[in-house]
């Protein structure tokens, strides 16, 4: 899990960075609004922790800046438990806030809670590390659940991709053979129908077209399942 931390107080910032890294997080620590905008990279981080009072601006402004490029979870650090601070932060799209001084354990609990709500739980990361989750371009394949999701480029949220059982098996075949050209004969042998009937060549063409229609941004110019002329198909992502 990658954390984008904006905290201008050197002692607090270094202490938080140390504590977060001790818990297994990767932390990028910046101290000013200017540095935050310079260091920010879209889709590089799982969560952002922003101090509100900065020497050259406000954490509110940085929250707006981040949210314009992606819907990343945000936790505000505020020095005062002022209702106006809390309301303004939440109206800007913040997911939670915590008042200074705070206990590190409380912040860790808030982080885990926000990540869970955002669908970025540690359990999901562990599943990915164990091979139960495969990523293919902007697709996420949950093998244990036989479920496929696709990230929406505008919102950054995962949306379900409804596949038939044969479409799912075809996608898994491609996923398990990345970088390998799969001939139509190889695909046909892997697509043995559950009823015991072979999937014929014409049916395979239909399934590949349907699968592309569901997972490719532009099915007429596929970027995930590519055609290798005269040989078959390949997935190289």
Short description:
The chain is an alpha/beta fold and about 240 residues long.
Radius of gyration: 23 Å
CATH superfamily caption of the largest domain: Response regulator
CATH architecture descriptor of the largest domain? 3-Layer(aba) Sandwich
DSSP E strands, number: 13
Physical arrangement of strands within the biggest beta sheet: 2-1-3-6-7
- Estimated share of beta-strand residues: 15-25%
User: So what's the overall shape?
Assistant: elongated
Question: Low-confidence parts lasting 5 or more residues at pLDDT below 50?
Answer: none
Largest sheet: 5 strands, parallel
The tally of structural domains comes to 2
Helix content: 40-55%
- What is the top-level CATH class of the largest domain? Alpha Beta
Summarize the helices and strands and which ones pair or pack:
Blueprint: E1 2-6, H1 10-22, E2 26-30, H2 33-39, E3 47-51, E4 53-54, E5 57-58, H3 59-69, E6 74-78, H4 83-91, E7 96-99, H5 104-117, H6 122-129, E8 133-136, E9 139-142, E10 147-151, E11 158-160, H7 165-175, H8 184-190, H9 201-215, E12 226-228, E13 232-234
Parallel strand pairs: 1-2, 1-3, 3-6, 6-7
Antiparallel strand pairs: 4-5, 8-9, 9-10, 10-11, 12-13
Helix pairs in contact: 7-9
């Amino acid at each position: 899990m990658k954390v984008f931390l904006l905290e201008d107080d050197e002692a607090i910032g270094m202490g938080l960075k140390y504590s977060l890294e001790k818990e297994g997080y990767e932390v990028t620590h910046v101290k000013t609004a200017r540095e935050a905008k310079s260091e920010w990279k879209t889709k590089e981080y799982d969560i952002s922790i922003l101090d509100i009072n900065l020497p050259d601006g406000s954490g509110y402004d940085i929250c707006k800046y981040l949210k314009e490029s992606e819907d990343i979870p945000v936790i505000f650090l505020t020095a005062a438990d002022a209702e106006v601070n809390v309301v303004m932060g939440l109206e800007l799209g913040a997911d939670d806030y915590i008042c200074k001084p705070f206990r590190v354990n409380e912040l860790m609990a808030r982080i885990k809670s926000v990540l869970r709500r955002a669908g970025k739980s540690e359990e999901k990361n562990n599943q990915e590390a164990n091979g139960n989750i495969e990523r293919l371009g902007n697709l996420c394949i949950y093998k244990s659940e036989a479920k496929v999701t696709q990230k929406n480029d505008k919102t950054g949220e995962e949306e379900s991709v409804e596949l038939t059982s044969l479409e799912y098996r075809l996608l898994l075949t491609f996923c398990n053979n990345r970088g390998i050209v799969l001939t139509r004969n190889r695909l046909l042998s892997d697509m043995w129908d559950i009823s015991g009937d072979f999937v014929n060549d014409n049916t395979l063409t239909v399934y590949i077209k349907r699968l592309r229609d569901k997972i490719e941004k532009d099915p007429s110019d596929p970027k995930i399942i590519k055609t290798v002329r005269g040989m078959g198909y390949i997935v190289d992502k």
